[in-house]
Input
Amino acid sequence: MPAKIALSVTLTTALLSGCATNKTPDLAPIEDQTVAALDVEGIDAKPSDAESNAVDINGEIPHLELVENLPNSIESFEIESARAFDAEGEGVTVRYANARKHRSADVFVYPVSEENKSLKHPDLVMGSTQATLQAISEAVQQGVYHNLDVIDAATKAYGLRTVARVQATYLRQNLASYTLVYQTEHDGTMVKIRMNMPDNVANRDSREWDRFVDVVLNSLTEKLDEQ
Output
């Protein structure tokens, strides 16, 4: 089992107090400004000027080869679509879903920005996590989400790879929801996985989400190592 390493006390305290008071926590500079805007379809950060070019996974979009190793089915999820999610076409988003259970999983793959390529792996992962948590706090301020609670923010070490995982619950349109955001980096490529589903005991206790992420990350790193 991978060793679980808590995020720094300073970061975690700032994040939780920021969400509780509806004030944006005073965070270090965001790792990549291209992922700093809130995606109102779920708690996540991605470009505000993105084109919503939803296409089938076999459609013609830039850099689709980055995600061609991903399986069509992972655990209880089926692949639905892929699209470019930034104006330059350098990022790819793949949507998985389980419609019957009202679950979705979005996989974001995009390059580290030029100004941050000199940063080390742990700093890139932490910066991206800070961006997501800042977006969560801003969403609370804007009234997009209500009763939001960041219930866990931690990292796991997988060999030389660090994966951050954030869990939160919130109300949107009076529906209780549970979300997990996983983030990591591999050889200059950022990977973010956002999962949304109804908030209930079974979903909170399930280990399926970690298994899903393991399959995705192993598939993506295998493809990236080929390049």
The chain has four helices and eleven strands. Confidence is low (pLDDT under 50) at residues 1-57.
